[in-house]
Structure formats: C-alpha cells, structure tokens
Write a structure and sequence with these properties.
Keywords: Cell membrane, Membrane, Sugar transport, Transmembrane, Transmembrane helix, Transport. InterPro entries: PTS_EIIC, PTS_EIIC_3, PTS_IIC_cello, PTS_Sugar-EIIC/EIIB. The phosphoenolpyruvate-dependent sugar phosphotransferase system (PTS), a major carbohydrate active -transport system, catalyzes the phosphorylation of incoming sugar substrates concomitant with their translocation across the cell membrane. It is found in: Cell membrane. It is a multi-pass membrane protein. The protein is mainly alpha-helical and 437 residues long. It is built from 21 helices and 2 strands. Strands 1-2 form a two-stranded antiparallel sheet. It starts with a helix and ends with a helix.
Length: 437
C-alpha cells in the first residue's frame, strides 16, 4: 500500500496537477464558473413559475411570458456569457487587456454562431421587418464553439501584440484609448477570419464541434450509468490524492454539465414533464443526490465524527458540521484527513458509486424526476433536491435514504480509523505524562 501511495505521489499527482493548472484549462474553468450567478438566478424564475399550487398557477398565468424573460436571458444565452468569461480569464493570464480580448471574442462568437435572419415585411401581430438573431444559437448547444472561439481570439490577439503588429499611440494617451488602438489590427483579423469561415467558406464551427463531441456528452453527462459512475469515481479519486477533483475534471466535464442542465431547463420551460427531460446526469444530480455534504458524501462521516471517542475527531466533526450542511467539506477532507488515507479513502469513493447507481435506477423508473433547475451549491441537499425536481417529495426522501446508506458504509471504516486515532492520542498522552514526571 505504501508503495502504491508513493507511486501516486511521484507520478500521478504531478501529471494531474499540471493538467489542472494548464493556462487554457484554468481559463475555461474560471469562465464557466463565472456564469453560475446568472444561471442560478435564472433557475429560480423557472422554479417559481412551477410551484404546484393551483391557485398560484392560475394567478401567475397571465404573467408567464414576462416571467420567462429572465431565464431566457440567463440560461438561454449561456454560451454568450461563457465566451466573454473564458476570453477575459485567458487574457489576464497572459497579462493582456482583458476588456479588449473579451469584446473581440464576443464579436467572433456572434459572427460564427448567430447569423442574423432578415425579415423584409411586417407580419401583423407577429413580427416587424428587420434583422433578428435566434437566441437558441447563443445557448448551451453552442458552448463548445464559445470555448474554441474565445481561446482562438485571445491567441490571435496575443500573437499580434507579441510581434508588435499593432497601432501604437504616443506617450500620455490614456490607457483605455491606447488599448483600443492596439486592438484594431488583431480585431480586424479576428473579424475577417471568423466571418470568412462561417459565411464565405460555409464552415459551421458549432455544428462541427457538436458532431464530434456530442457522443462524449451522452457518456459523461447524459443518461449513461457508466459515464455517471466514471465521473463520480474520478472526482473522488482525485480528492483522495489531495487534488481538487472538480478542478481537474471541470474543464472536461463542466461544459457537458452546463449543456445538460440548460437543455433540461429549456425543455421543462417549454412544457416537458420533469420525468421526461433529456438528461439524467447533470451537475445538480450529483450535487443533491450524491454529494451530500460535499464530494464523497462526507456529511455522513462528519456525523460519525461528532460522536467519536477521539477528542480530535469529535472536535473536528463538530466544527465541520455547519459547513458540511452547506456542502463545504475541505475541513474534513484535509483535516481528518481523507487525503492519502486508504482507510477513509475507500468509503469516500465507494459510497458515492453505490448511491449514484441507486439514484440512477430510481430516476429511470420515474420514482424521482430529473433536475429542472440550477440552484446554488450551498443549499442543504434535501431542500435543493425537492426544489430542483419540480417540488418532488420523493427526491427529498432519496437524499435521506442516500445519506443513511452512506452512513452505514462509512461506519466500519470510521471505527477502524477511530481506533488508530485513539491509540495515537493515548501514546501522545503517555509521552506527555512521562516528560512531566
């Protein structure tokens, strides 16, 4: 066991850390996470449009078109926000002007993803003559196009800046004016490149990426049990190595997660029943059914620690309970520790795999609905699961069942670790007494 741990420390951890800290991966992660406040707020509007109380439903019926606007301009144009977030994050890592890079990336994305449709005559009561953009082109389906467009735009900008192929203003010109002129040449190249690719060559970047990557979405964030279990295993496995699991997996899996929950929200908003939504494995599925107290379902371990005979484990458990209730578990992971701990690492990985399997089968058999909203990660799991599944009582009960299962799985491993900790505390006490004597 010690040899395996040493091998992981020497070979696997450096590789994983290098991947997780790679400049473009970090920019993707930061850019997508930056969209969370918008999508969470938009999800609340979706949730509160669907409270299952007949009098409430009748009351808001005349206002539904207006109440739908916030979700359309948050979840509905997710890729647009992601483009700006990724581009500005990457520009900052290069110490470039993030505002210019963000705007140029937005321009490139709109040119390639959202060609305007022209209506020449008024259609009475429906639409006026003019040019229109289909909001669907800016939504989750274009997320991978947004990632590629943002990265390419910043790299083109950086190339021209590093080669000094820019318009330089005299000393004393305000930086905002100077930066605008610096962006002129790279901006023109970016515009011409993406315009020519989409409208002259006819290359649809979003369609191309969707064709290539959508099969992966079906595995990692669609309805595949294997994909769901693989995702859960890798996140927990990296945590056991001391590496932030979502940070490593985020650039790979988060675009699929964001697309999946956006598709679910959109389908639900358009009248699809919560049991018939497109995707089971969203981030919210894991967040509320599996990560009860954080990755590894550590709230169960915290509860066991609170009643431990070990003073250290008892104190840590009581200190960790409130953060754990709101799904913050770094104190437990690094304080117990679970990191590089083969005793607690085993249930940390196994328990979520079991509850994922149970939750999956209860979902496909329509016992619990699929996720139709994106709430903040700090909600207590039973309440968030109830709200995120269109107010399903069974979803809240599933959280409690999964917690009980996890508690039972952790218990024998915890008792072994507790005994080790008690022996250690007894040795330290004996040593202290001998020194005092």
């Amino acid at each position: 066991m010690n040899g395996f741990v040493l091998w992981m420390e020497q070979h696997l951890m450096p590789t994983a850390n290098k991947f997780g800290s790679q400049r473009h991966m970090v920019a993707i992660r930061k850019g997508l996470i930056a969209t969370m406040p918008l999508t969470i707020v938009g999800s609340f509007f979706t949730v509160f449009q669907n409270i299952p109380i007949e009098a409430y439903t009748e009351f808001i019926a005349p206002y539904l078109p207006v109440l739908d606007i916030p979700s359309r301009y948050t979840m509905g144009i997710l890729a647009l926000y992601a483009t700006y977030g990724i581009a500005t994050s990457l520009a900052k890592s290069y110490k470039l002007d993030s505002l210019s890079c963000g705007l140029l990336a937005l321009m490139a994305f709109l040119v390639t993803a959202a060609p305007p449709t022209r209506v020449f005559e008024d259609i009475d009561g429906v639409i006026n003559a003019g040019r229109y953009i289909n909001l669907a082109n800016l939504g989750s389906a274009s997320l991978f196009g947004a990632i590629v467009t943002a990265i390419l735009s910043v790299e083109i900008y950086r190339f021209f800046v590093e080669k000094n192929v820019t318009i330089k203003m005299p000393e004393g010109v305000p930086p905002e004016v100077s930066n605008s002129f610096v962006a002129l040449i790279p901006g023109a190249v970016i515009l011409m490149l993406f315009w020519a690719l989409r409208h002259i060559v006819g290359f649809d970047l979003n369609g191309f990426l969707s064709t290539i990557l959508m099969p992966l979405k079906g595995v990692l964030a669609g309805n595949s049990l294997f994909g769901g279990l693989l995702t859960v295993f890798l996140i927990c496995f990296f945590w056991v190595l001391g590496i932030h699991g979502p940070a490593i997996m985020g650039p790979v899996i988060r675009p699929f997660w964001d697309m999946s929950i956006a598709e679910n929200v959109d389908a639900f908003t358009n009248g699809v029943d919560a049991n018939s939504l497109p995707n089971i494995f969203t981030e919210q599925f894991l967040q509320w059914f599996i990560w009860i107290g954080g990755a590894g379902t550590t709230l169960a371990l915290v509860v066991l620690m609170m009643f431990s005979k070990s003073e250290y484990l008892k104190s840590l458990g009581r200190l960790s309970f409130l953060p754990g209730l709101f799904n913050i578990n770094e104190p437990v992971i690094f304080g117990t520790p679970i990191v590089m701990n083969p005793i607690l690492g085993i249930p940390f990985i196994i328990a979520p795999l079991i509850t994922t399997t149970l939750s999956y089968f209860l979902t496909v058999t329509n016992v619990v609905p699929m996720m139709m909203a994106r709430l903040g990660f700090a909600f207590p799991a039973p309440i968030a699961a109830w709200m995120s599944t269109n107010w399903s009582i069974m979803a809240g009960l599933l959280v409690i069942v999964n917690f009980a299962i996890t508690l039972a799985i952790y218990y024998p491993f915890f008792k072994v670790y507790e005994k080790q900790q008690l022996d250690k505390e007894a040795e330290e006490l004996a040593s202290k007494e001998s020194v005092e004597a």
